[in-house]
Design brief:
alpha/beta; seven-stranded parallel β-sheet; six-stranded parallel β-sheet; 13 helices
């Protein structure tokens, strides 16, 4: 059985779409299916190849998805599949109707509206079950997909997170993880490190190490490496393949409000989060409302205030063991790390409902 995954990753949108789809692809292949990526451009090529996937590149703009339908259709006629999984904010109704005429489809959503025709709807977010999909589909004149896979139990984490945390949870904080996304165009990591170093100079954060994940599109890589060379409390991690192992080394975390938040939950790693994109706002606000994971704000709109809140919450988490334990218990109830396997089973069940429908375009 063959599944095509249509997703993109680049400096503008980061690698979140690609990373979560890679988790699903790995789970599909573990179940004997073939997963194939189709991308708009070559920016995610190295990452996909590094994970063992050779994508078909459409050589087009990720923003103008209808313009790719002709070439995508020709590719599909030569390499048909039983199901196409689409993960993009740039799709249109016509796009989904067209690819839906070729094969059964699945659509990965985060927003709740607008909605599109599909056989499988996926929204694995903490707020997924609360979004009014039934109303949105009715108002759009579309049928609500029978397979609507909603909520954290479907969070497509990498296989390494399926077993949760193994290492002992320390009573005091000695290591802090800082992860700011694939590109970090706002240089949150660099600015936060600079301010933490200043506080260290004032006597705060004694005997604490800060582990900074440098994403594949980071433009601050050399600056961060130079900074760490001058400040021994900071360590830079590039091309991280064992994120679970790095999280096990740490006691608390700072994270952008993306899929990494669910990995942190599976590892029971108390966190403070921030946003830099509109599609992250609902997740961050929901974590803030339902747990004691504080949302520091949108760094693109209130940079100075966000930096101040991040510093305040880092210090609070470092000092308050009871707070860390409460957050661990709250995180434990959100995801068990096995969502990718659940999604793979559901997608293969849907794919088994029929053969390729034939290509248009």
């Amino acid at each position: 059985m063959r599944v095509i995954i249509r997703a993109d990753g680049n400096q503008e949108i980061g690698m979140g779409h690609i990373m979560r789809c890679l988790s699903i692809a790995d789970a599909l292949q573990a179940k004997g299916a073939e997963a194939v990526f189709v991308t708009a451009d070559r920016e995610s090529l190295a990452l996909l190849r590094g994970r063992g996937y050779e994508p078909f590149v459409l050589e087009c703009s990720y923003r103008e998805m209808e313009s790719e339908l002709g070439r995508f259709g020709r590719y599909f006629r030569q390499h048909p599949a039983e199901l196409i999984l689409v993960d993009s904010y740039c799709i249109t109704r016509r796009y989904m109707e067209t690819v839906g005429s070729w094969a059964r489809t699945a659509w990965m959503d985060d927003l709740g509206e607008p909605v599109y025709p599909t056989d499988v709807l996926i929204d694995y977010n903490i707020y997924g079950k609360e979004l009014p999909y039934k109303t949105a589909y009715r108002q759009a004149g579309l049928r609500l997909p029978e397979r609507s896979l909603l909520g954290c139990e479907y969070a497509p984490l990498r296989a390494q997170f399926a077993e949760g945390r193994h290492s002992r949870i320390r009573e005091s904080v000695s290591d802090v993880l800082i992860t700011t996304g694939g590109g970090d165009a706002a240089n949150v990591a660099g600015e936060l490190c600079r301010r933490l170093a200043a506080e260290i100079g004032q006597g705060r954060h004694r005997d604490v190490r800060y582990h900074v994940v440098c994403g594949p599109f980071s433009r601050q890589r050399e600056m961060l490496k130079q900074f760490a060379g001058e400040n021994p409390a900071f360590r830079i991690h590039e091309n991280v393949t064992d994120m679970r192992g790095l999280m096990e080394e740490c006691d608390i975390a700072v994270s952008a409000a993306g899929s990494t938040m669910y990995e942190l939950c599976s590892m029971r790693l108390p966190t403070v989060c921030f946003t830099f994109a509109e599609n992250q706002l609902r997740m961050a606000a929901c974590f803030d409302a339902l747990t004691e994971i504080r949302y520091a704000g949108n760094v693109m709109e209130e940079r100075e205030a966000v930096m101040g809140r991040l510093l305040e919450q880092i210090f609070r988490l470092e000092q308050d063991g009871a707070l860390r334990e409460r957050i661990r218990r709250q995180m434990e109830g959100l995801t068990d790390g096995r969502g990718a396997g659940r999604l793979a089973r559901a997608l293969l069940a849907e794919a088994g409902q029929g053969q390729s429908r034939g290509s248009e375009g």
